[in-house]
Amino acid sequence: MRVAVLCGGESSERDVSRSSGWAVAQALTGRGHDVVLIDPAAEEPVLADPVPADAAVVRVPTEPPAQAERALLGQRMYAALTGGPVLEHLRRADRVFIALHGGWGEDGHVQALLELAGIPFTGASSDVCAVAWHKGRCQAVLEAAGVPVPPRVIYNPAVQPEPPTEVKQLLEGGPVVVKPVAEGSSVAVRKVDSLDEVRGDGEVLVEPFLGGREFTVAVIGTTTLPVVEIELTTAVFDYEAKYQPGAVREICPADITPEFATRLQELALRAHQALGFGTTYSRADFRCDAAGTPYCLEVNALPGLTPGSLVPVAAKGAGTTYAELVERLLTASGGGSPTPC
Questions:
Q1: Choosing from 126, 186, 282, 309, which is the catalytic residue?
Q2: Which residues pair with 96 in a beta bridge?
Q3: Which compartments does it reside in (predicted)?
Q4: Is 298 annotated as a binding residue?
Q5: In which band, very low, low, confident or very high, does the pLDDT at 338 lie, cut at 50, 70 and 90?
Q6: I need a surface site. Which of 15, 123, 173, 285 has the fewest CB within 10 A?
């Protein structure tokens, strides 16, 4: 097939996405596809056409891009996706493989543009991405579907300068985790102990810090991959820990009882279905409390696909190579295409 791989973008996960994009494009080239790699936010958006099979692995820096860069990146991205040579590349493709993470790539904006243009793409539709991306909306859907989620408070300092009483009540039970309500790769996630530390910029979700073990489960269609345990050396699984080799241990399959593994997989599949992912793919993240009870923290619509990311780790645990995984994601029914290519 002629495949256009979209990566990079304007979000704080831009560097992660470029690493995913190069790896995906190289894998698809090795499988015999005709691949063009595009970063719509780059000054020169066509990174490779065709993509060489021996392209070098792109490392992820220890820090996300500066906030000041994102306005220019967004301008370039919008222009590239709505006209000119990038749009023509997308129209000529049999399918667009979305390897974007965060921002417009994961909140439904890019998917909506492709849907309007009638261009088939991988992953979930724009409406599903929009719900999954906003942690507050996502957790509300999961809770209604019977998936356990932590108690949480949405707080926007721009609207309410003082944290609400509910935040104070959460802090009375111990430390809390504060995270942007719409952000990925654990950017700006922090563990805090006092009310003053909760204050910050933008809308955030505040939830109790859960001191137990951390797990993640990927789902493709109706198939759950093996459970991955994340052994942390930090309080939270932050940006640096996620993408620097050796920062954490990712154990797959997780060293847990078969019954507990089945429980996590059932919850991940229930979350996947409740949010409407259908035949596409997702990754549900869980953390346990001190008693070992798991809670779903979020569901990722476009999880990382760097060779060391959690979905490829889970696929490897199931005996699936990286190239086989990418091929499977390409041919699964996705947005703008009701049937596999």
A1: 309
A2: 4, 121
A3: Cytoplasm
A4: yes
A5: very low
A6: 173
Rounded distance, CA 178 to CA 198, Å?
A: 7
Q: Looking at 20, 185, 186, 282, which residue is catalytic?
A: 185
Active site residue 13: yes
Token pair recorded at residue 308: 């060391």
Is 300 flagged in the annotation as binding? yes
Radius of gyration of the chain (CA): 19
Rounded Cα distance, 116 and 125, in Å: 12
Active site residue 17: no
Catalytic pick from 10, 11, 13, 207? 13
Q: Are strands 34-38 and 2-6 parallel, antiparallel or unpaired?
A: parallel
Q: What angle do CA 276, 147, 228 make, to 5 degrees?
A: 85
Q: Which SS3 state, helix, strand or coil, does residue 102 take? A: coil
Distance CA 106, CA 131 (A): 10
Strand pairing report for 214-220 and 204-208: unpaired
Which residues of the chain form beta strands (DSSP E)?
Answer: 2-6, 34-38, 46-48, 95-98, 153-155, 176-180, 190-192, 204-208, 214-220, 223-224, 228-231, 249-251, 281-288, 294-300
CA atoms in the 13 A half-sphere facing the CB of 224: 20
Q: What is the mean pLDDT of residues 136-144?
A: 96
Q: How far is CA 131 from the centre of its chain?
A: 13
